[in-house]
Write a structure and sequence with these properties.
Elements lengths: L6 E13 L13 E11 L4 E15 L13 E16 L11 E10 L3 E3 L5 E3 L22 E7 L3 E4 L14 H8 L1 H7 L26 E12 H20 L10
Helix pairs in contact: 1-2
Length: 260
């Protein structure tokens, strides 16, 4: 962090990843997706800064890259994540006496996601409306629907601790195939279990068999580079560009009318 008090505008470029039922690893470079964002940081004193930001990125995962005993489940998902965040940064060194300092931070994050996957015909299918685990169906009152816009906590290396296990639309159990078929249709059954689509795959599981791990919430996180410019310098640069354009307009002369 550069040492100078004031307001800063930052531009973030990096990669986003996720940890959950389809990717139990804490971090994998191979399946990281692009993310970008913008931040505004206001230094309050030599130790503390207030910041806010917006970011957009993508995450995905598939059982074909998962642990061996889960490959036959054959589930997959993709989603775009959009988030806005506010929080505080605390510098570990006195900003008035050093050019750089390590820092820690904490954010409150509002984010939106909407998991989807390709079906057997290659069509894009959003998963939440299908109630793949019986969410919201009267026959399964313990299976609660999940919201697509939620709150998360941010800290560390841009980690986001969510309070949902459904970033990937996978959390708890398989529900009765016939009940799901009657309530939500054949597409819901197809997307709830996809082991029968691959060689050696098993038929649709019995009601109550484990589909995910509801005791472990999903995470998403990103890493990259944040470029910051002081707002006064940014405004001066923008003002300079406008001044140049204005001068060019004022120096443009229209041709005189020629009398015939």
């Amino acid at each position: 962090m550069l040492v100078s008090f004031g307001t800063y505008v930052g531009f973030f470029l990096g990669k986003m990843n996720y940890q959950g039922d389809l990717n139990p690893n804490s971090f994998t470079f191979a399946h990281s997706k692009a993310t970008t964002g913008i931040t505004i940081r206001q230094s309050l004193n030599r130790w503390i800064s207030f910041k806010g930001g917006f970011a957009i990125g993508h995450i995905d995962a598939a059982d074909q890259y998962n642990r061996d005993y889960l490959k036959t489940r054959n589930l997959s998902f993709r989603t775009t994540i959009k988030e806005v965040s506010i929080g505080l940064e605390a510098s570990l060194l006195d900003l008035s006496t050093t050019r750089f300092t390590p820092y820690v931070f904490g954010d409150v994050v509002l984010y939106h996601f909407n998991p989807w996957a390709y079906d057997m015909s290659g069509n894009k299918v959003f998963l939440q409306p299908l109630s793949t685990e019986g969410q919201g169906l009267s026959q399964f009152p313990e299976q609660k629907p999940y919201k697509l816009t939620q709150i998360a906590l941010g800290f560390g290396l841009l980690q986001r601790k969510t309070f949902t296990d459904y970033l990937d639309d996978v959390s708890s159990i398989y529900v009765d195939r016939n009940v799901l078929l009657q309530a939500k249709g054949a597409k819901a059954v197809e997307m709830a279990y996809r082991g029968d689509e691959i060689t050696g795959g098993l038929p649709y599981p019995n009601h109550g068999e484990q589909r995910g791990t509801p005791s472990e919430m999903d995470w998403y996180y990103f890493f990259g580079v944040n470029f910051e410019i002081k707002f006064s310098a940014f405004a001066q640069l923008f003002k300079g560009v406008n001044s140049e354009n204005s001068s060019a307009l004022h120096n443009t002369r229209c041709p005189r009318n020629v009398q015939q």
